[in-house]
Amino acid sequence: MNGINEENNIILKRYEPIADMIHATFGSNCEVVIHDLSNVQSSLVYIQGNVTGRALGAPTTEVILKQLRQQGNEVKDKLGFTTKTTDGKMVKTSLSFIRNDEGEVIGYLGINFDITAFSMVNQVIKEFTTVYDEEENGSHVEESYAKNIDEVFHHLITTVVLEIGVPIAEMSRNERVRFVQKLEEKGAFLIQGSADRIAKVLGVSKQTIYNYLE
């Protein structure tokens, strides 16, 4: 039995440099642990970092106990799930089970990353980037933020051409009427000289534009 335990200890110790590397890479928000499941009541045998407040000799978690009870040596790694510590930290966790040469689960390597600050920042960003239209339904509103009125006019023309779905040169009379009416709905005729501009774009007279509006 002691020989088996010694063999397991050798296997678990191989993961210590990996734990050191992970912690060094991700810094103070990261805690990396190695658990020896031969004694679940005092399974924590290696730790780098301090996120969960545990120390060497701490027991394994209820999640692990349940997984082992249900699946035994067929237990699957648990990657990227979130938990909350007793002091309110939000923690993202991944667990990878360690097996001996016979395929028996002897321990696991765990990564606990404190994402509390990230969660708070994410909430702030979400609140700032959520947009609402007049009906408060969260629709996205297109805006060109043009530098001059010519850019505004060009943007309106381009937008309506896309809505009609036909190039100006290929528009039928009915499509031209719709084109002018859509521009009017978008406020194009509030732009000074817009009738002349639109007439020039369509290659028709200014009076024709007014006829289309009627």
From TrEMBL:
InterPro entries tied to this protein: DauR-like, DauR-like_HTH, PAS-assoc_C, YheO
Source taxon at top rank: Bacteria
Residue stretches making up the PAC domain: 77-127
PANTHER family associated with the record: TRANSCRIPTIONAL REGULATOR DAUR
Protein name listed in UniProt: Transcriptional regulator
Taxonomic source organism: Sporosarcina koreensis
Upper taxonomic lineage: Bacteria, Bacillati, Bacillota, Bacilli, Bacillales
